[in-house]
Amino acid sequence: MLAGAVRSNQVGRWGRPGQQAEAVRDDQVGREASRGDQAELTLNPPEGIVAGPMNEENFFEWEALIMGPEDTCFEFGVFPAILSFPLDYPLSPPKMRFTCEMFHPNIYPDGRVCISILHAPGDDPMGYESSAERWSPVQSVEKILLSVVSMLAEPNDESGANVDASKMWRDDREQFYKIAKQIVQKSLGL
Q1: Which of 73, 83, 148, 159 is least surrounded by Cβ atoms within 10 Å, i.e. has the fewest?
Q2: Hey, which residues are catalytic here?
Q3: Where in the sequence is the active site (predicted)?
Q4: Using CA atoms, how far apart are residues 20 and 68, in angstroms rounded to an integer?
């Protein structure tokens, strides 16, 4: 990734001397952190979750498969997602996006996941989340994925990324369950 930036002369945008070395150092720290997360997920994978780098050259793009939690409207579904890590990971959180159709209060219509653990460290400008709920460098990919499984089981309709799904979750749970069942069937190719 950094080599590509050098070839395309994007490195020049860093401006001050020493910033290139900082970027290389951040890249190495991020690469090592994601390798550590991969090792942990390989040795002790949480039930219903598979995740790892898309290829061995790029540890900053991961693919994940998340099984719908038991006893929920998403049970039996298998939902693919992509985690994109910034160069300064683990100082900044990755972004996560489902690559299949999803209808959920905390998932934007384009698949982006909206939960506290994926929000940058610091205070919430909207005053909704405490800083303890937001990203910190001690978090891990496993914790993110487990949080997403919990989110699938228990949506937060007060912080809706998908307004239609939030409203339906609150006002017409039966219809929400029907849509979720259709999404589960699509995830299985049925």
Answers
A1: 159
A2: 114
A3: 114 (glycyl thioester intermediate)
A4: 42
Domains and CATH numbers, the chain: 30-188 (3.10.110.10)
Chain position carrying tokens 């209060």: 105
> Which residue shows structure tokens 């290139």?
20
The average pLDDT across 39-58 equals 81
Residue 170 to residue 158: CA distance in whole angstroms: 10
Place of tokens 């099984």: 67
Tokens 């959920």 correspond to 104
Question: pLDDT value at position 144?
Answer: 93
Take residue 4 and report the two structure tokens written for it: 């590509």
DSSP code string of 117-139: GGSPSS--TTS-S-GGGS--TT-
Q: What is the pLDDT of residues 97-120, one digit of tens each?
A: 999 999 999 999 999 999 988 988
Tell me the pLDDT band of 169, cut-offs 50, 70 and 90. very high
- From residue 79, give the alpha-carbon distance in Å to each of 4, 63, 76: 31, 11, 10
Q: Is 2 in contact with 27 (CB distance < 8 Å)?
A: yes
Query: Which H or E run includes 98?
Result: strand 95-98
**8 A C-beta contact, residue 80 and residue 94:** no
Average pLDDT in the chain: 80
